[in-house]
């Protein structure tokens, strides 16, 4: 499908009426909105997901007192604030349906806190703020990889403890704001994680309460007893914004947007219904409220996110750039289906009325959507935080159940080989990971001693000591060094077809 290039108009409240019938715009007035939610971590996913659900709700004329205030403390938060402020906090969302693109401008964000802790605390103590939502990445919750508990020894945490009156972490800021609300006789806001973590509400509670016990022990008990931390499962594939997306918005829909978002048309949000100060009626726009979100989270983390992790590293080693290109490779498509079907799905607890096989087929179709333009490089990001969330728990559960982990061990071997490849500057492939140097050094050492990679206990915990897993990993890694990714992948698939 082709589109005629249009003259672009700068996105703003003033130009909304001029965008034409091809772009959906808010039916509500900005003046009718008032804040109810502070969202920390205003990236692409939040704007493609939570902000869209709220925009749909406001377009129904419902719950206009639940608009969003953006927030953050990082350099990239400041850059996002600057871009969005120039366009009145509006965002263009392009839904990448392979049958035809569509565009909408969302207006559910009405402001953005200044990027400093004191300004954010001032925003958080306003009585109208009843919910704080988070997308701070899987690695932002200070989880100890060995114990799964709160990492009290992390330098950021120790920094907040040392300067109790001037917190710099998100959790220190939340604690300070909660303390002031308590002192002012205000009920605490609900904290809702929207990150890809198992039982993300419990993880958020662990971080807040864990730091509070160090920073403000007299406040920790009140937070533990009074603050709600519902869990939620979120899903919408959202690539990073590049010149491609900006040009798409400009040339196809005639909008000059400094921070557009392109995403797939699929969205899902399942959450626990525990909001003491109330919540917007998101069930009116497709959100599913359940008593326990854990089974849904686990399904998504193990099958969809685990599936992304599974295809990421072999696809990179085979030279694929885009996810849909990788899914057009018969070996990658077969690998995804076989690994998840045979080693992951059997250890995911059943959800009545849900077919995991059908869910996997839907995931594969979404991965193969060429309009999304999702990149293999994005899937390879931050492996030292993602693998412990999406892959390693499946290995641990399978071993406890006495089930095979041959394919999962191969997935980890692909990751190791990828880390080693990035250590070669001639590859031109960067390793974007907070443990980059550690991973590259261990991966290179694993050419002689595969155990060197599994000895990264801050990533693998005690899993490297499991004989069945470590032996399978070692055999696969040696084969990768010797024969290359394609040959190893095909040999694995051949062996699976013989045993099925």
Automatic annotation (TrEMBL):
Q: Mind listing the GO molecular function terms for this protein?
A: oxidoreductase activity, acting on the CH-OH group of donors, NAD or NADP as acceptor
| Domain Mannitol dehydrogenase N-terminal residues, every copy | 36-283
Q: Residues in domain Mannitol dehydrogenase C-terminal?
A: 292-481
InterPro entries per record: 6-PGluconate_DH-like_C_sf (IPR008927), 6PGD_dom2 (IPR013328), Mannitol_DH (IPR000669), Mannitol_DH/Oxidoreductase (IPR050988), Mannitol_DH_C (IPR013118), Mannitol_DH_N (IPR013131), NAD(P)-bd_dom_sf (IPR036291)
One Pfam family of this chain: Mannitol_dh
Entry keywords, A to Z: Oxidoreductase
Domain of life the protein comes from:
Bacteria
Please give the name of this protein.
Answer: Mannitol 2-dehydrogenase
Task: Look up and give the organism this protein is from.
Answer: Roseibium suaedae
